[in-house]
Amino acid sequence: MKSLVVFALLLGAAVAASAQVASHAPTGAAKQGTPPASSFQVSDKAVARVNGAVLTDRDLLREMLAIFPYARQHNGFPKAEEASIREGALQMIIFEELVYQEAVRRKLTVAPQQLKKAEIEFRKQFATPEEYKQYLMVEMGGSEQVVREKVKRSLLIEQVLKTEVQDKSVVSLAEVRAYYDKNPGRFQIKEAYTFQSVSFLPPPNASAEQKKEAQKKAKDALGQAKDTKSYEQFGLLAEKISEDDYRVNMGDHRSVEKDKLPPQVVKALQTMKAGQVSELIQIEDAYTILRLNTHTLAGKRSFNEVKDALRQELQKAKYEQLRVSLGKRLRSQAKVEVL
Predict the structure, then answer these.
(1) Are strands 281-283 and 252-257 parallel, antiparallel or unpaired?
(2) In the CATH hierarchy, which fold is given to the domain comprising 8-172+313-338?
(3) Residue 131 CB-half CA count within 13 A
(4) Which fold is adopted by the domain 191-297?
(5) Distance between CA 218 and CA 280 in Å, rounded?
(6) Which residues pair with 255 in a beta bridge?
(7) What tens digit of pLDDT does each residue of 135-192 get?
């Protein structure tokens, strides 16, 4: 769902502008951490026309950065994903222009008080007054009036989206309940455990000596593990001495369904209570020590447990369906040229 935050569209342009500063001003004026200007070259060339209105590569970059903001930190977009990011951004700016033109067709207006408030809020998005002035000069030709028109455009787009998409995407609690009752399988949960591990893994094709070394390290670690009194203490031990990949996450395996665990692990966990540490568990040539955090029995999640998240999920899906439908309807009545 595209957020209906005021000036989301214009702020995207501001973000893009910060990436462009170096191509228009001394390098020192660019934001700290901004990649070289060569990564984000724009020439204001047309990339599409919507009923004659021109959309430029600057508009396109704004939206690409909104989709993948990390591009500024990574010196560009991922090569494998750049084409899809570009296409998604292109379709979005076309959609925004169609919605704006629909707002104009409907003769929608923005109250002066609302516009003034929106302008003030927009300026707050900049870290310093100097940063805003720089944006104003680079992107808006030094014109406060252009900024005002851009903010007004965003508010008009938001009005149409609120009426045609947001308001219509509200899902009642009764609808949520109906979905829950019709899809019982979605809310069934299997028996599962959350636990942490400290493990010792001899290398592939390990020699007898290497296997003995792994066993010795595991036995030495068992006492240390037994001495831990909390999730954090066990986790710090895992980070320090464990040899499995989970050590980077305090040994935490999160929730794992029972039928996906080795039988030796299940056997140990079944005898434990939350907070207890296991004895040494051998799985082939590897050794592990577990701390049980929670044991969830199989069953069905109650409606009260899932209703809030499910309502958000259903509203998000409905919002997107309505947005896509609106875009198709507006596009069918428009002349759209991709250049």
Answers:
(1) unpaired
(2) Triger factor/SurA peptide-binding fold (1.10.4030)
(3) 16
(4) Chitinase A; domain 3 (3.10.50)
(5) 7
(6) 194
(7) 888 777 888 888 899 899 999 999 999 999 999 999 999 999 999 999 999 999 999 9
